[in-house]
Design brief:
35% helix; 19% strand; 9-stranded parallel β-sheet; single chain
Length: 338
């Protein structure tokens, strides 16, 4: 439910209304616009509450939010959310490409990858310090040491970094070491983790779970928004279907639907959908045409030596070719390349 206040509403009246809402065991979330304040009421709202609030002389209107995802929907926030990371803006007119290796493997490997990416004009590198793996015997990432290496990359090259986070205990230290936190597909419904990343002042990329519906995906984002972090970027990375010819099925329809239903930026990870590097090219171009705001692409200096996901990681020269394709498609759909 949204309570729209009149332009002349005083701060005291706003605070009194928030108190009235809290007395009903509901959560008031105020948003200050240029002309008036809007209060979003979250919880089990009832019609009699609406009538009581509408009767107040400083309230202009009370509007129900029909979507189950209150904070993510355009009913809540009609304008697009722009997530700023340094001088990069997700959800604006510019199209953003994040690239880098699947995981942090060593100082030499990660510094080499960062310099390659920087040389191509990209501003954000992806690399996971923590790796959720199907097998307990597979490489699990360098952990805290990996975070330290990412921070070193940021300090020495000036390039911004993002990484996956898996454990609520690691959220504060990760937020201190990187510029963007990523909640992976396997943790999309790890609600304690979603709540924790909602409490930090750090942008979050939320990946869609491999078997999650679009509604479940948006509701996961709702947890982060509800806990205070408004800088959420949705990431479609392919879902599990009956098809076995490729790793996952990239749901291009979901990209268009997410842009229609929510005000949040939407990016696409073609690497995890494809499972093979050659498919990354057409999937990336399809993502741009569908309205995505960016890409999350895997690139390794030497994919054949990668500790994880080498088959889907681009060679540096392939990334350079992909960026040329991206620029051409962006121009065709009136998007600038960030």
């Amino acid at each position: 439910m949204i309570i729209v206040l009149k332009p002349q509403a005083t701060p005291e009246q706003v605070e009194n209304l928030k108190g009235m809402i809290q007395e009903k065991k509901l959560n008031p979330v105020p948003f200050e616009g240029e002309e008036r304040i809007v209060i979003h009421v979250l919880g089990d709202t009832r019609e009699e509450y609406s009538k009581a609030w509408k009767a107040l002389d400083f309230v202009e209107n009370v509007v129900p939010i029909l979507r189950p995802y209150k904070l993510s929907s355009k009913e809540h926030h009609a304008l697009k959310t722009i997530v700023r990371v340094g001088d990069v803006k997700f959800g604006d007119t510019e199209f953003v490409v994040i690239a880098g290796p699947c995981s942090v493997e060593s100082e030499e490997q990660i510094m080499r990858a960062a310099n390659i990416i920087k040389g191509m004009g990209l501003k954000i590198m992806r690399a996971s310090a923590f790796k959720p793996r199907t097998s307990p015997y597979s490489f699990q990432g360098l952990g805290i040491e990996g975070l330290k290496l990412l921070k070193q990359v940021r300090e020495e090259t000036g390039i911004m970094v993002e990484t996956e986070i898996m454990d609520v205990r690691d959220v504060p230290i990760a937020a201190d070491h990187v510029d963007i936190l990523r909640v992976g597909a396997r943790n999309m419904q790890n609600f304690d983790l979603l709540k924790e990343v909602g409490k930090v002042d750090c942008p979050v990329i939320l990946k869609r779970g491999m078997s999650a519906t679009v509604k479940e995906f948006i509701m996961a984002a709702e947890y982060i928004l509800y806990n205070g972090n408004k800088n959420v970027i949705l990431c479609e990375r392919g879902i599990r279907t009956f098809e076995t010819a490729y790793r996952n099925t990239l749901d291009i329809c979901a990209v268009a639907l997410l842009k229609q239903e929510t005000h949040l930026p939407v990016i696409v990870d073609p690497s995890h959908a494809a499972g093979g590097r050659e498919l990354v090219f057409p999937l990336s171009k399809a993502a741009i045409a569908a309205g995505a705001d960016g890409l999350l692409v895997e690139m390794h200096p030497e994919p054949e030596k990668a500790f994880s996901d080498g088959d889907q990681s681009l060679y540096p020269e392939q990334l350079a070719r992909l960026l040329k394709d991206v620029k051409r498609v962006c121009a065709a759909v009136d998007r600038s390349f960030g």
